[in-house]
Amino acid sequence: MRWVTGQRVWGSRMLGGWMIKRFVDPKAEFVYVPNDTDPATVKDGTPWHIGTTAELSTHDGHAAWYWISKKYKLAEKDPVIAKMEAMFPLTRLAYVAMNEENAVIDDALPPGAPLEAAGLATVLYGVTVATKDPGEAMRLSGIIFDATYEALRAQLGRPRQTIDHSKHAVGG
What we know:
Elements (H helix, E strand, L loop, with lengths): L1 E5 L4 H14 L4 E5 L12 E2 L16 H8 L2 H4 L1 H20 L6 H4 L6 H16 L3 H22 L17
């Protein structure tokens, strides 16, 4: 199936694309159009994350990835997706802050955000700096989201504990 989205691939469009490819349509073909494309003009494919009128676009205070997850019940089926959904708005805030003039990564994370959000925001920002090709950005971010998903899945259900860092080597 063809999925039509905006050509500026960044944070939330990356997450939405990964959700589609991993959980909804593994054979998804992404087609990139100008970001201001009217979703009603898309005749060959499913519009997502373009405009504000498409079912799977940013509207009502939620990004397109939220509507993708809701429509396909991704968080209901998978507790790892639920954790990613809780984390991603803070990742997005950090990501957006990093794009501000003179912003540095250390200052971008909102107070109380999980540490994973900082790491995820940093690598997603790196993807947008490294490539302007939307297909390549989507491919690279897919690898990052796959790795994040697997790391969170491996941690699921583990109780929190205090680690004695003095037992671990630091530095070279």
